[in-house]
Amino acid sequence: MSDSTSQETPAPSAAEVPLCEMRNIKVAFGGLHAVDGVSIDLYPGEVVALVGGNGAGKSTLVHTLSGAHPADSGVILINGQPVVINNPRDARAHGIEVIYQKLALADNIDAAGNVFLGRELVTRTGSLDDEGMDSATRKLMQRLNPRFRNLKTAVRSLSGGQRQSVAIARAVHFNARILIMDEPTAALGPAETSQVSELITQLKAEGIGIFLISHDIHDVFDLADRISVMLQGKLVGTVNKADVTKDEVLAMIIVGKMPADVSSEEMAGLHGSGPS
Amino acid sequence: MTEAVPAVHTGRGEETSRRWRDFVTNSGIDTRLLGMILALAVIWIGFDVMSSGKFITSRNLWNLSVQSVSIGVMATGMVLIIVTRNIDLSVGSLLGFLGYNMALIQTQGKISILGLNLTIDSLKEHHWYTWILALAVGMLLGALIGLLQGSLVAYVGVPAFIVTLGGFLAWRGLIFRTGGTKGQTLSPMDSTFQYLGGAPERSLGVAKTWVVVIVVCAGLVSSIVLARRRRIRHGLDPRAKAMDVGFAVGGSIAVFLGVWLIAIKYKSPSTGKSVGLAYPVLILIVVTMLMTYLARRRRFGRYVYAYGGNPEAAELGGINTRRTIASTYALMGMLCAVSAAIQTARLNSATTNLGVQNELDVIAAAVIGGTSFSGGVGTIPGAVLGAVVMQSLRSGMSLLNIDSPSQDIVVGVVLVTAVAIDALLRVRNRRGMLGALAGGVLVAAWVIQTGRP
Questions:
Q1: Rounded to a whole number, what is the distance in Å from the CA of B377 to chain A's nearest CA?
Q2: With CB atoms counted within 10 Å of each terminal CB, which end of chain A scores lower, N or C?
């Protein structure tokens, strides 16, 4: 297994079709423009981090892709084809899976039930195929978290890392091509965080594209290939991780300017105002 | 469903109790259900001692079984509603309304919907289909009213408490405006329909009762065998063979003994022949089996529990949560119709105050049976046992000639004690749980003892 720091990925060539492209997405809640004409894209096998302060609009933007809240206007293209995503089922039909910050697990149901939540396997008579789901989940867990063996307990009794692996198993089982991870390491300790980053490396190698939403600039620099920064609903810009420093990204988040446009006084003032 | 277990384990004692909990989870034993059976045994033995042997007789237990049916049937539906973090306060009024409508069909041949009366004179006489038609109309009406209430909750967003409180008032009032009879008592029911009431002379009799026992035992054994085969087929370890055999054999013996001691040993005073299972009890058995299957083995049941556990996760999972919730109410409406049929058959009449206060007993039964208002937790068999527990208390206290208000006190104390025990167990406060149990039992026993004339 390669070490946890992601290898440098050169910026994709213009000839490749993006796995996912979001053009000019707008979402407004009443008079508030939560997402105001944002365009980003994602190529196979890369991690694009979506960063910004509170209220920047990152979650709302991603909800338009995951089907939790459709966009008011704008186009979403998957492999170059425009698609319509009105609800989570549409999103999943296009190979988009989400791992939510709060994991979206039903606490009173066991791991297998959660992996197949809403997509349960049924027998010929239409009753739940619990054994089929149990067996499939066990196989998944062998890959993801081999020490996790007691699959029959309700998920509320599991540790943070085990719950995370259930959420990831759910995404992986259904052949996601585009994975959205919302603050995946927020509730995890260091050992579990490195497990997640190993997993991300593995998924990238399989050609899966990942949108990573994160507050944590260090996680972003460990895991991402490109970084898209949002501020107050607008896209500040998208940069290659290899071409920027953490401070330059901070400047994008706080001041809202691309590295070339930031003055030296503004750079100096950054750490005074503190990271968001 | 299993109870909460904290994730942090330290020390040897915790390791042993964790292994015990894993064993319990993997074997599928429902400890809360076992606890209730134990409590029921204690209650039965206690009343038997206090009444000098009058409680544990086949006649008394047979009556007990019939009396538990009406609340038990409705409690199975209430579980699903409470699991989804809702409530249904209209159950008693709806029962009265549906019972009145079914009686109207049988006494006057009138089918009444929204003030429109359709009279079919032939229905006033006895035909083989009269009772089927009456019951079918009742269940359809119950489903539609339930769907109306459920839609107001799920699609319009009116809180369940309010919708069903409105129903509690409206359906009761509507009885007086139904069929142009101005609330007059309707009687008698169709002769076949009366079998639903559970009179000893109109019960299954010996032969049919044994058939039921064989079918139930066959069902129990085959479900265990099939489950075992399914697990093996998918490459999973099946439950220990000893456990499977134990459940199959033990369960069958329990069914056999229970039915024999209660239904077969109870001989009708007029004919001297064994009475057999009462028809309402058969209905309760069938309803319980169907509802348990629905809750545990169908997607609908999975969606109900998922929504109760985490509504957001259910939505994000693509589950049609609104349709699920509306359906729980439609189902409840149908079950109210079944209970209404049983009650009107037993009384052989429909009055305007049929089903008054039933909603409270139904909710109490579900809650004593382990259903939690926080959502996602509760079993169907538990709720039926809860109904039996409550009816056992009332029946036992009646045997001791304790007045009705005192009975209400005891049921109230038992209800609160049961929920306190659940709450304390959830946070693993074993000492507190035992304290609550002891306190509840002492208070109830004191009320009972001082209530005896």
A1: 7
A2: N
